[in-house]
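W.,

You were right to be curious about this one. When I first looked at the sequence I had no strong expectations either way, so I just let the prediction run and decided to look at it fresh. Below is the sequence, 215 residues in total, followed by the output.
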Amino acid sequence: MAKIDPVAITHDGYYKCEVVTTHGHFYHGYHLKVLVPPEVTLFQLENGTIVCRAAAGKPAAQISWTPGGDCHTVEEPLGNDTVTVQSSCCWEDHRVSNVSCSVSHLTGNRSLSIERNSGVQSAVYVKTVHIILPVLIFLVIVVSICLWKIGVCRKCKLKKREANSVAEEDEMQPYASYTEKNNPLYDTVSQVKRSEVLQNEADGLCLHTSYITGI
């Protein structure tokens, strides 16, 4: 009879007992499987997610939730043939105030409960607002500066166009005066106009003289 006390994970394996008698050889084999109960914890994160962890169990534990939610379970094998199972769960329904985590294992089952802390979710919301608000203010300032620069550039371009128009008019006026002075046709028209004025004055003088003589 063999007795192992205390039992450790390293004792896991196949054992064979062999007996030799006058009636022959007799042996019996036995596979020893060492079970390790997991350490179960249940806690809530800052973002409101509730985590149920069954650490260093052999074999891996099974985790379930009441009520069911949006859950994600991962297994992490350890170096001594044990496995840590962690399940993270969240609920969109704010009416869920109490949740339970059930851990099933060959060494026994455990169930833990926790109250959902709505204050944690509020704190996360406030923290998110504090992060987003400065970013929005910065973006508004940048956009305002860009719009101001665009307006200044437009005003500068408009002033340049007006200055160019005035300069073109100033350049055209001397050219027009020079053309009038040096154009023979312009001189002829001027002489005709002067002759007409003198003729009108002479006719007016003659009429005035005739009127006086008649009297």
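Here's what jumped out at me. Confidence is low (pLDDT under 50) at residues 206-215. And, maybe more interesting for your project: The two ends are 178 Å apart (CA to CA).

Coffee later to discuss?

I.
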